[in-house]
Design goal:
- The protein is mainly α and 367 residues long.
- It folds into two domains: 6-173; 202-366.
- Helices cover 76% and strands 0% of the residues.
- It is globular.
Amino acid sequence: MHDGDSENGTPVERVSTLELFFDLVFVFAITQLSHVFGHAHSVVDFLRAFLVLAVVWWMYAGYAWLTSNVRTDRLAYRLLLLCAMAAFLVIALRIPSIATRHGPTLGLAYLVVVLVHTALFLHAPNSSARAILGLLPFNLVIGALVLVSGSVSEAWNWVPWAAAALPIVATTVARRERDFQLSPTHFVERHGLVVLIAIGESVVATGAGAAELPVGIPLLTAVVLGLALAAALWWSYFDRDAARAERAMVDASGPERTRVALYGYYHAHLLMIAGIVIAAAGVHEAVAEIDHAATAAMAALVSGGVALYLIGGALFRRVLGIGTARARLVTAAVVAGMAPIGVLLGSLVQLTLVVVAVVVMLLMERR
C-alpha cells in the first residue's frame, strides 16, 4: 500500500493522520447522539435522534468520498478540512438541544460543512469534480432543512429532519453516485476506522456509567459484559468482513463500485453505527443503574441497538457479496426478543444472554 499521487490522477490509498483527527471530531457527535438516545422519552424523540444521525452521517460519508479523491497534504486543503472539523464540532455541541427550538447555529454549521466539501471536491483530478456539482443542490436542500429545524416548535421540529432525509433517498434513486470515483483501499480503511472509534466510544460510555459508583461484583460484572459486547461487535466486523469487503471493492469497478459503496458504506453502515450508538446508550444506563431494576427503555436500547447493528451487518454482507446474512438476521431477531428479559430478570442477565447470542453467531459463521 502506498500514498497515491492524487494530483496526477492516481487514487489516494492511505488514510492520513488528518483524516483520523477528523474522524475523532466526528465521533464526538456520535457520542452526543448516544446521550440523546439514552434520554429519549418517546418514539418521536427516538425517531428524531435517528434522523439526525442519518443526516450527519451523510456528510461524514461525503468527506470519506472526498478524501478518497483529494489528498490532504496541501496547506489550503488542510485549512479547509480544519474548518469543516470546527463546523462538525459545533454540530456536535448543538445535538443535545435538537428536541428544542435550538436556533440557527446547527444549520449554519451544517451548511459550512456542505460548502467546504464542495469546494474541496472541485479539485478532484477526475470525474468526481464534475459529479459533485450534480450532488450539491441536494446537499444544500438538506442544509436548508436543518437550518429550518432550529426555528420550529418542539412538537414539530422532527418534520424538517424527516424532510432532510428525503434528498438522501432521492440521490440514491437517481444514482447520483454513478460518476464519482474512489480509491477502494482508502475508502474501506476510512470506514473501518470510524467503526473502530465508535466501538471504542461505546467502551468509554460503559466506563462513564460506572463513574463514582462503589466497586462491587455486580458493577464489575456489568462492565466486563459491556466490554465483551463491544469486543463481539468488533470481531463481527474486523475478523473477516473488512478484508473481504476491501477485496470486493477492488474487484468492482466504475458505476458498480460506487453503487456498492453507497449501499454498503452509507446505508448499511448507518444501521451499524446507529446500532453501536443505541446499544452504548443502553449499556451506559444499565451500568449507571446497576443497583436498580432495569426499565423497559433501558432493555430496549440494549437489545434494539445490537439487533440493528446485526441487521446492518447482514445488509453489508449482502451488498458486498462477502458472506451469508442468515445467521445475523436470525441472531438479530433473537436479541431483539431478549428485551423483556432485562425487565423481568435484570440488566446483567440480559447483557449475558445478548453477549452469548452474538458469540454463538460468530462461532456459527466460523464453521
